[in-house]
Amino acid sequence: MKRMTGAELTIRLLERQGITCIAGIPGGTNLPLYDALSRSTRIRHVLARHEQGAGFIAQGMARSSGCPAVFFATSGPGATNTLTSLADAKMDSIPIICITGQVSCPMIGTDAFQEVDIYGMSVPVTKHNYLARTVEELLHIIPEAFSIASSDRPGPVLIDIPKDVQMGMLEIAELPLAGMPEAPVAPDPALIRKAADLINAAQCPMLLLGGGANHPGTAAIALSLVEGCGIPAAMSLRGLGIIPLEHALSLGMLGMHGARSTNMLLEECDLLIVVGARFDDRATGRIDCFCPNAKVIHIDTDASEVGKLRAVEAGIIADARLTLEALLPFLGMKRRKPWLDRVACLKATHGMAVKDSDNPCSPYGIIRCVASLMDSSAIIATDVGQHQMRVAQVFPFTRPRQWLTSGGLGTMGFGLPAAIGAALQHPEATVLCFSGDGSLLMNIQELATAAEQQANVKIILSNNGGLGLVQQQQELFFGGRIFASEYTGVVDFPSIARGFGIPAINLNLSRTPEKDLEKALHSRGPCLVEVNIRAEDKVFPMVPPGAANIEMIEGECHV
Questions:
Q1: Which residue of 97, 99, 121, 163 has the fewest CB atoms within a 10 Å radius of its CB?
Q2: Cis geometry, peptide bond prior to residue 541 (ω within 30 degrees of 0)
C-alpha cells in the first residue's frame, strides 16, 4: 500500500497516461498540483503567460501528434480564461484535458474568493466534464477522461479538482490502468456494398475530405481511392494535407476562399463522398445550392452529423479509415477519363492564380517564398484572417497533421501558442506561424513563452495595420464604410519581439530580403519576420456570406 495526496495521485495518473509536457499557470487553488508536479521526473512544465495560451499550447501538441494533451489552470479567472481554447477544441474535435483547481468543497457555492462554477460554464464547450468530490474519484475520472477525449469524435474534457481533494490522502495498492481510446467502430457491410455500388455507377464522383480524415492511416487509404478510382478530392480547411496540394487530382480547399475550379467541379459532380467533414457553411455556401446534382455518401464517426444538413443516400457511421479500407475491394479501378479531362481543364482555366508570387514582400509571395525554403518536415500553424486564407490557398501541404489552424471557432490568437505546442511536441521540426497584426496582438504575451522555451517557431507576420478580413467585408458588403477595423497606432513588432529576447527583422527594410528570410528560417530557436502589406490587398476568390459557392467574386469588386 502506498499513501499519497490527491495531487500526487493526479500526477502519477498523468504520468501513466504518457504525458510528458504540461502547459499552465499556477494559482492558489492548484498549488498542491504544482507542488506534486515539481517532484515528477517524467513531466515537464511550461509556464504560459495566459491560460488561453496554455490551452492553445496543449492544442498544438494534440493537433500535431493526434494524442491527448494536458493543461493546468487555477480557479476563478484562471478557469474562465480556458473557455475559448476549450470551445475551439470542441469545434475542431481536438483531444485535450484541462485540469482546473477549485475552492475547497465546503466553500463551493459561497461566492468564495476566485470561485466560479467552471463545471457548469464548460458544459457547452466540452465533450465531457467532471467535478471531483473525493480523492477516490480521481482513480476513475482521470483515465476515463483520456478515454473519452480520444474516442470516436475526439474532444476536450475538463476536470475540476477542489483544493481539499488535492490535499486529501489516499492509500492505494496499485494505480488503475491508463485510459485508452475505445475500439474504432467498423462500418455496416450492407452500407459498404451500397456505397460501393453508388461509386461504381458514378461518372463524375468527388471526394470531400475533412478534419476527421486528417490522420496518416486514413490519408494513405484516401490517396489509394483517389488514384485507383480516378476520383478527384477537395478538402475542407481542416482537411488540407490529406492529399498533397500538388497532386494532379487534388482540388485544394473548397468553399468561401477556394479556387473557382473546385467549386465549379462540385457543382457538376454526380456523387459526393464526404469523409470526416460536417458541411460547414464556409465550405458549402448556401447548403440548398451545394452539389445540386450529386448523390451523397457521408462517412463520419459522429452520428449527429450524418444527415443533419444534407440528405444522404448512404450514411456510414463508423471510423473513416476502417470504412475506406472496407470500400476499396469493392470498387472498380477505373480512370474516368472524360471526368478527369474536365478536372484538368478547369484547374488550368479557373485554378488558383496569385499576384507577385516571387516577391517575398507581397501577401502571397511571402508564403510562396517561405514554402520554397522549407521541406515536408515543417509544421505550419496560422492565426485567423486573410493570412490564414492565403496560406490555405497556396501553401503546398504534403501530409496529414502538417497544418494547424482554428477552423470551426476561427480564433484570433490561436497561432502563436499552438505553434509553441507543436514545437514542444516535435523539437526536431521547424514550426512556421503565419499571423496578422490583429491576431498576433491577441496572445502576444506568449512570445515570452517561446523565448523561454527556445521553441523553434518562425513567426511570419503580415502587417496591414488593421483587421484585414473585417475590412474586406466592410468594403465589399457594407458600402465601403471602414469602421473600428483600422489601427491608428503603429506597433513596432520587431522591437517588441526583441524586447522578449527574440530575433526579428522587417523584410521591407532589407536590402536582400530573400537571403535574410532564408537565414531567419534556418536559424535555431524563435524569430519574427515582418512584412508590411497594403490594407487594400484582399483575398480572392471569395463567396459572399450567404451566397452559393458558384457565385464567387474573383477580383476587385466594389458594391
A1: 121
A2: yes
Q: Could you give the 3-state DSSP secondary structure of residue 256?
A: coil
Q: 85 is written with which cell numbers?
A: 481554447
The CB density around residue 512, as the number of other CB atoms within 10 Å, is: 10
Please give the C-alpha separations between residue 136 and each of 141, 170, 172, 220, 482, in angstroms, as whole numbers: 9, 7, 9, 43, 58
- Is residue 100 within 8 Å of 82, Cβ to Cβ? yes
Q: Is 303 buried (19+), middle (13-18) or exposed (0-12) by CB count in 10 A?
A: middle
Burial letters for 49-59: b for 16+ Cβ neighbours within 10 Å, e otherwise? bbbbbbbbbbb
Q: Are the C-beta atoms of 192 and 330 separated by less than 8 Å?
A: yes
How is residue 172 written as a grid cell?
Answer: 492505494
pLDDT less than 50: residues of the chain? 556-559
Enter the C-alpha cell of residue 469. Answer: 478580413
Give Rg (Cα) of the chain: 24
Do residues 282 and 254 touch, judged by C-beta distance below 8 A?
Answer: no
In this structure, what are the phi and psi dihedrals at residue 228, rounded to the nearest 5 degrees? -75, -35
Residue 527's H or E segment, with its range, is: strand 527-532
pLDDT in tens, 267-306: 999 999 999 999 999 999 999 999 999 999 999 999 999 9
Torsion of CA 463, 468, 472, 474, to 10 degrees: -130
For residue 347, what are the CA distances in angstroms to 50, 57, 279, 429? 44, 37, 23, 33
Q: Nine-digit cell at 467?
A: 483587421
DSSP designation for 501:
T
